[in-house]
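Supplementary Note 3. Input sequence used for the single-chain structure prediction.
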Amino acid sequence: MKISRIAQVGAVAAVAALALAGCAANETPSGGSSGEPTTSDLSGAIAGGGSSAQEVAVAAWTAGFQTSNPEVDVTYDPAGSGAGRESFQAGAFPFAGSDRAFTIEEIEAGPFDGCVDGSGIIEVPTYISPIAVIFNIEGVDALNLDAATIAGLFSGEITNWNDSAIAALNADVELPDLAVTPVHRADDSGTTENFTDYLFQAAPDAWTAEPDGVWPLDTGEAAQGTSGVVSAVAGGNGTIGYADASRAAEEGLSTASVQVGDEFVTYSPEAAAAIVDASPFEEGRGEGDLAITLDRASDEAGVYPIVLVSYMIACQEYADPANAPLVKGYLQYVASPAGQDAAAAAAGSAPISEALAEQINAAIELIVVE
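The predicted structure, written as discrete structure tokens, is reproduced below.
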């Protein structure tokens, strides 16, 4: 039996709250990661929004944070990364979730109406998750695919599931004579930008469109948000799409193993974390801006290359100073071991490493609290 998305998120929040209730009884920290018991003096409300891929993790983070800070109300609208960035720039949200960081050009162009004029922005990679290539083909439960074949399926060059390119990678699979229906995001999506970045880097001959949050081709079927893509793939036969791996697991969808070097790698939090830790920060950014440049064409053993690194974005100094302590406390919880463990349990994400956590916490400390 399937339950609604709203019910699923509510269930996640309830489970996270119960899991953290014991901590709350001992007056857990308001948001820091030191582990020392304190009494929260935070109160108020903050509303954020953006990445739908982070939706399940945000529900867990919010439940845990509000358990420790009962006088704070946090709401989040999973309208997509593009919508979240736009709302943050307009000052409608004091924080946003995005499956990509702002580009340097976007930051220079501005404006960021919720921040003090001239303030830097904080961008911290707090959610790391594989992007699964999901499919629904009656009678087929597993596939091996390389980057060029994935590019062909989504570009419209490969139109039937018994195509020779797919058959060559799946000798033991009986492939049907069935039309391919690729499904992509209709909205401006960081998941799309990460996915097209993988195709652009790993299959440059088969995929020439530059990475973009807006689907760059007039191919396939469009669906709104992560939930829309998952529903469209699940509801069809011969469909293929891409979505945050946690959602694929929730819906029981089949997922492809992706070729890396001489092996086919199935997504996992560990494989996603491995490529992040091996990748550098982008140069030319502010002190609190921890945008990561991912090497999608890596051939290291055990690395899963289609990974989503989703950011929490905030002002270094807020035009409305009342937002600062609430956002700062919330982000400190998100980056804490408790917050990362809650997200991993709820969403199957990869907890950030200790080294990355230190850098993230240093960035969050730059948020000015009066």
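The CA atoms of residues 31 and 329 lie 4 Å apart. Residues 1-38 have pLDDT under 50 and may be disordered.
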